[in-house]
Structures are given as C-alpha cells and as structure tokens.
C-alpha cells in the first residue's frame, strides 16, 4: 500500500489527516513549533510515523478482513499492530496527552482577587 514513503492517490486523505494531527499536537504543546523542545519534535515525528503505519494497516484490514481464509487473525494484527498502537500511546503520554495546558498561571494574590470578584 505504501512504497518508498509515497501514499497511493486513493489514500491522499491520510496525508491531510496526518498533517492536521501534527498541527494539533504542536498547538497542544507549543502553541508554535518553535516553542517545542527538540525531544518533543522528535516524539511528534515518531508518533506520526506510527500513526501512519496504524492507519494504513487499518485500511488494509478493511479491504482484506480481520481473518485469513483459515479463520486466523491476519498476521499483521498478531505481529505488529498492537506493538505500534502501544508504542504510539507511550509517545502520546510522554508528550503529555494526559494533561491539559493551563491558559494562565496566577499568583496567590491574583487567585484571591479573582475569587473576590465572583
């Protein structure tokens, strides 16, 4: 389905999906790419590579089914899919997907003042 890093024309929507996902991760962490650490940039790139493999695998499974003619799970599911999915999950946790960015940091005085205005 993917040879030499080139997506088939009928899969071009995956490029848009990956591009938007990358932009979203940068917004979540940055908000600009220049705000990211080198490590965050590397993690985002690796996460996108894994996400691409997972999405292409899912597309292949849609076309060929989950099971072989012998009724067994497709080898790609047994051998690699879960490893890629777990590795992607770990990348997202490392990037901080489990927490939200705080819009502003208030001093204790500002918190008291804000509470007093309610």
Identify the notable features of this structure and list them briefly:
elongated, mainly alpha, 118 residues
In total, the number of strands is 0
Share of residues in helices: 55-70%
Shape: elongated
What is the chain-wise order of helices and strands? Answer: HHHH
Give the terminus-to-terminus CA distance: 58 Å
Oligomer: single chain
Strand content: under 5%
**How many helices does DSSP assign?**
4
Radius of gyration of CA atoms, rounded to a whole number: 20 Å
Ranges with pLDDT <50 over ≥5 residues?
A: none
Number of domains: 1
Class from helix and strand fractions: mainly alpha
Biggest β-sheet description: none
Describe this entry's structure for a reader.
The protein has 118 residues and is an all-alpha fold. It has one domain (9-116). 64% of the residues lie in helices and 0% in strands. It contains 4 helices and no strands. Helix 2 (38-64) runs antiparallel to helix 3. The longest helix has 27 residues, at 38-64. It is elongated. The termini are far apart. The mean pLDDT is 86.
């Amino acid at each position: 389905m993917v040879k030499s890093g080139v997506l088939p024309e009928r899969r071009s929507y995956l490029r848009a999906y990956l591009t938007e996902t990358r932009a979203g991760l940068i917004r979540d962490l940055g908000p600009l790419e220049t705000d990211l650490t080198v490590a965050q940039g590397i993690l985002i790139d690796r996460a996108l590579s894994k996400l691409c493999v997972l999405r292409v695998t899912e597309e292949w499974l849609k076309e060929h089914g989950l099971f072989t003619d012998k009724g067994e799970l497709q080898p790609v599911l047994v051998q690699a899919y879960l490893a890629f999915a777990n590795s992607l999950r770990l990348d997202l946790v490392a990037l901080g997907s489990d927490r939200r960015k705080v819009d502003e940091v208030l001093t204790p005085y500002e918190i008291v003042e804000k509470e007093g205005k309610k």
